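Final report, Chapter 2: Outcomes

The project's central promise was a pipeline that accepts a single protein chain and returns its three-dimensional structure in a standardized token representation, suitable for archiving and comparison. That pipeline is now operational. To close this chapter, we reproduce one record exactly as it appears in the project archive, with the input sequence first and the structure output second.
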Amino acid sequence: MDRRTEEGVTLIELLIAITLVGVVVPAIAMTFIVGFRTFAETGDRVSESSNAEIATAYWGADVMNATAVAPNASLGCDLPEAAEPIVSFATPEGRVTWYLSASPSLVRRECDAAAGPDDTTISGTLSPSSDPGASCSPDCTGTITLTVPQAGLGGVGEFVTSLTATRRNSDA
């Protein structure tokens, strides 16, 4: 009789391979799942910090250059329908109004008679439970603070960004 060479795997080898695949594949899958979740959360955090960075860039300059301040009013800067003014500034260059849009978003509108209005969205992730607001020292001749409540990651929770600046040009 010829002895044939049988090639293949035994039942024990097959069971070991299946067990190893059953342990290794879920571990690799979880690694990818956690990685994608972390990536999404990091993107949300970058977006949140970007809103604060944009607000900071404009707020300090607007307050320091203001020759007049009007909380909860628009100093001759026409706003879109249903917009609620938070604070307006008259500056040597023109007028600037920070307002709450209907979306709701915090928007900064720069009004220039020659060029027309220029809107910059400061934050589109506002908290649904409270509105942004501005407060100032008596007669708004000194320190002015902007408070922006924003929705947290995925709409869960909230955090507040407060920006404070002091006027350089004040009319007492």
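Archive annotation: Residues 67 and 168 are 8 Å apart (CA to CA).
This record, like all others produced under the grant, will remain available to the consortium after the project formally closes.
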